[in-house]
Amino acid sequence: MTTFKTTTLQEDFERIVFLKQQKERPYLMRYKREYEYIPMAIWTNRRQLYRKTFKEFLSYPKRIKYKQFYEKNYPFAFNY
User: Fold this and answer.
1) Domain count across the chain
2) What phi-psi label fits residue 23: left (phi over 0), alpha (psi between -120 and 50 degrees) or beta?
3) Residue 2 counted as domain residue
4) Are the beta carbons of 1 and 38 closer than 8 angstroms?
5) DSSP 14-78
6) pLDDT of res. 67
7) Mind listing the pLDDT tens digit for each residue in 20-65?
8) Which range of residues forms the domain containing residue 55?
């Protein structure tokens, strides 16, 4: 579960990447519908997209608005 009061966006990314390293496929279930979690949920919950890094996922032309948002507000996300 993400967007819960006790976690940050970076902690949620770290948990997702840890599961990816363990060859597990997480399913991101959002507690609230917050804008910054929408692309993370799309990336995590779709198998064909999850094979790519988050940076590669955001490089698709349809996701340019999310990429600009993350570059401005959450630059650490491009490390995952």
Assistant:
1) 1
2) left
3) no
4) no
5) HHHHHHHHTT------BSS--GGGHHHHHHHH-HHHHTS-HHHHHTSGGGHHHHHHHHHH-GGGG
6) 93
7) 889 888 888 877 778 888 899 999 998 888 888 899 999 989 899 9
8) 9-79
